[in-house]
Design goal:
The protein is mainly α and about 400 residues long. Helix content is about 70%, strand content about 0%. The chain has helices at about 1-15, 20-35, 40-50, 55-80, 90-115, 120, 130-140, 150-170, 180-195, 205-220, 225-230, 245-270, 280-285, 285-310, 325-335, 340-350, 355-385; strands at about 50, 55. Helix 2 crosses helix 7, helix 5 (about 90-115) crosses helix 8 (about 150-170) and helix 7 packs antiparallel against helix 8 (about 150-170).
C-alpha cells in the first residue's frame, strides 16, 4: 500500500514538472516510428483508417481531440492577454515581434526551396510554428540554471506563435465554405457570448454549446479545431466574489488531458513514417530541406534577429538577468515545431501520402536538430556562468 502511494506521488510530481509534457510527447513520437517500422506496421496504419460514426480514427484524433488542444491554447492565450505576462502592450512587444520574425523568415526559406511548384508551395507555413511543450520541456531540463526571464520570454513567444498559426490555418487552409453552417456557428458564438455577459459561471452550458459549435464548424469548411479556440474566448475569466473563475477551472481540468492524452495521441497517430518508403532522394527533397532549414535556420534567424534589432535600437530592454548567448540558445529552441508543424503540414498536403512522409521527416529532423543544438548551447553557456549573479533562479515561472 505504501509503495502504491509512493508511486502515485511520483506520477503526480512527474505530471506537474514542466518537462513532463514534452517527454511524453517525445515518447509517443518515438513509439510511432518504432511501430511504423516493425511487423505491426500494417495494423498501425489500418487502425488509423478504421471508421467510427463516419470518421476514421485518424480524423477523430486530428479534428475532434485536437479541438481540446486548441481549447486549452485559447484559454491560455486569453488568460495571458488579460491578466498574465501579455496583459500590457509593452510586455507584448518583444515576444510579439520576435514571433512574427520567427514566422516570416522560415516561410521565406521554405518558399526559396520549393519555388515554383504550386503543390509544394502549399506547405510554406509548416516551419513557422513552435511547439511550446517541447521547447519549454527542453528549457525546463536545465532547471534553475536558466533565467526565469527566458522561460517567460519563450512562453510568451510560443503563445503568440500559436495565435499566428491559428490565423494561418483559418485564412489559408480552409475551403469550400458553407454559409448555413457558418451561420449556425455564429449563432452558437452569439449564445456563448450571451452566457458570458449574463455572468453564467457553470461550465456545462458553455460545453454543450461548444459541442454544437464544433459540429457546425466541422461542416462549415473551416477547420474544426478552430471551434475549440473560439469557445475558449467566451469562457469567463473575471468573476464577482470569491472562488476560481470558469476559465481557471476549465484550464486546470483540461491541461493534463491535453498534455498527457490528446497531444501524445496526436503525435503517435501522425509521427509514424515507414523508413522503407524513403530514399536518399527523399532526404534531399525540396519539402524536406525546406522544412529542416526553415525550422533550424529560419526560426533562430528570425527570432534572434528581431530581438537583437529591437534591443540594440533601444525600443525594448533585454530580458532581465539574461545574456545574449542565453537568448540565442532559446531562439534556437524555437525551431522545435513538432505538434503544430505536423498539424499544418497535414492540412497543406491532405491527399498526398508521399508528401506527408516527407514533411514528417522534415519536421522530426528539424525539431530534433533545433532541440539538441539549443540545449547544448544553453548547457555550455550556463556551465561557464555557474554562480554568476546574472542567473535569476528565484523568480517563479507564472
Amino acid at each position: 500500500m505504501r509503495a502504491a502511494r509512493a508511486s502515485l506521488r511520483a506520477v503526480a510530481e512527474f505530471m506537474k514538472a514542466e518537462a513532463s509534457g514534452g517527454i511524453v510527447l517525445m515518447a509517443a513520437a518515438v513509439a510511432a516510428l518504432v511501430v511504423a517500422n516493425s511487423p505491426w506496421a500494417p495494423h498501425y496504419f489500418h487502425a488509423l483508417e478504421a471508421e467510427f460514426f463516419g470518421l476514421s480514427l485518424h480524423d477523430w484524433i486530428n479534428d475532434a481531440l485536437m479541438a481540446l488542444f486548441f481549447l486549452v491554447i485559447g484559454l491560455e492565450i486569453k488568460r495571458e492577454m488579460l491578466v498574465g505576462e501579455l496583459s500590457s502592450w509593452g510586455a507584448r512587444l518583444l515576444p510579439g515581434a520576435a514571433a512574427l520574425g520567427g514566422m516570416a523568415v522560415p516561410a521565406l526559406i521554405f518558399l526559396a526551396f520549393d519555388h515554383p511548384d504550386p503543390q509544394l508551395l502549399r506547405g510554406w507555413a509548416i516551419p513557422t510554428a513552435t511547439d511550446i511543450a517541447f521547447a519549454l520541456g527542453v528549457l525546463a531540463l536545465l532547471g534553475r540554471r536558466a533565467p526565469s526571464s527566458l522561460k517567460l520570454f519563450l512562453t510568451a513567444l510560443a503563445i503568440i506563435d500559436d495565435m499566428g498559426a491559428v490565423a494561418i490555418i483559418a485564412l489559408f487552409y480552409s475551403g469550400g465554405l458553407s454559409l448555413p453552417m457558418l451561420g449556425g456557428a455564429a449563432l452558437c458564438l452569439a449564445a456563448l457570448y450571451g452566457l458570458n455577459r449574463a455572468g453564467v459561471r457553470r461550465l456545462w452550458p458553455y460545453l454543450v454549446l461548444g459541442l454544437a459549435l464544433w459540429v457546425f464548424v466541422f461542416h462549415s469548411g473551416v477547420h474544426a479545431t478552430l471551434a475549440g479556440l473560439s469557445l475558449a474566448f467566451t469562457i469567463p475569466l473575471r468573476v464577482k466574489g470569491e472562488g476560481q473563475s470558469p476559465l481557471a477551472r476549465l484550464e486546470h481540468a483540461l491541461l493534463p488531458v491535453s498534455a498527457f492524452l490528446v497531444v501524445p495521441l496526436f503525435g503517435f497517430a501522425n509521427a509514424g513514417v515507414a523508413f522503407g518508403n524513403l530514399s536518399l532522394a527523399s532526404l534531399t527533397h525540396p519539402v524536406t530541406l525546406g522544412i529542416v532549414a526553415g525550422l533550424f535556420v529560419g526560426k533562430q534567424a528570425g527570432v534572434f534577429g528581431t530581438v537583437f534589432a529591437l534591443v540594440k535600437t533601444g525600443l525594448v530592454p533585454m530580458p532581465p538577468a539574461a545574456r545574449w548567448s542565453q537568448i540565442y540558445g532559446v531562439c534556437v529552441l524555437t525551431g522545435i515545431g513538432f505538434t503544430m508543424s505536423l498539424f499544418i503540414g497535414l492540412l497543406a498536403y491532405p491527399a498526398a501520402p508521399d508528401l506527408q512522409d516527407l514533411l514528417k521527416v522534415g519536421v522530426l529532423s528539424g525539431s530534433l536538430i533545433s532541440g539538441i543544438a539549443g540545449a547544448l548551447i544553453l548547457l555550455a553557456v550556463n556551465r561557464r556562468s555557474v554562480g554568476s549573479p546574472a542567473i535569476d533562479s528565484k523568480r517563479p515561472l507564472t
